[in-house]
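This entry is passed on directly below:
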Amino acid sequence: MGMMKFDIPHSLPKDEVKKRVEQLLQYWGTKYGVKADWQGEGARIAGKVMGIQLDASFKITDKAVEGEGTDPGMLLRSQAKSYLQKKFGSVLDPSKSLDQVKSTLD
């Protein structure tokens, strides 16, 4: 199985991005049982999200969250990318406070 790259731009300070991404990973952990292992400015995640195996790693840079994960195949690739873009985009929305991010994930 190949790898699928993703790149979600942001305009927030890196420490704020990490707090927000931690909220997303907690949500995935609670809802889907996804495990996250933070290492500095990035993390490795593993588990199933919406029935699709997700093994990925990413890092937080000054301008984006960059990563790659297992490619679910041609039939589900666009759905997987769209889901990641939507979820990361939502938590990284600078018009939302951290509390608003938390409440939208519940």
Notes: Helices lie at 14-32, 74-91, 98-105. The first helix runs from residue 14 to 32.
